[in-house]
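Assess this one:

_____
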Amino acid sequence: QVHLAESGGGLVQAGGSLRLSCAASGSTARINDMGWYRQAPGKQHELVATISRGGSANYADSRKGRFTISRDNAKNTVYLQMNSLKSEDTGVYYCYANDPLWDYEYWGQGTQVTVSS
């Protein structure tokens, strides 16, 4: 089992920045990809960014150039630096990790990000 604990959400004005963190604990050696998904009110989860254990990053087009995902494998932690935030970035951000051996996905409980215009 893997437990994901997010932190760093909050309220910020448009144009501002936030940094999200997600620390994994438990059977972390089995994790490959980690990342972030966002859920806006009334909508489904959507990809924000993911990063492999080797450091290959993948971003949603709308976040390229504004968001940067990084990972510290020694700390089993993934980070999301969000700059130039827009009101449409508002939502609950969920940390994600996958175990490819068992084809299983883990999710955090989510952290609220609110961008005021």
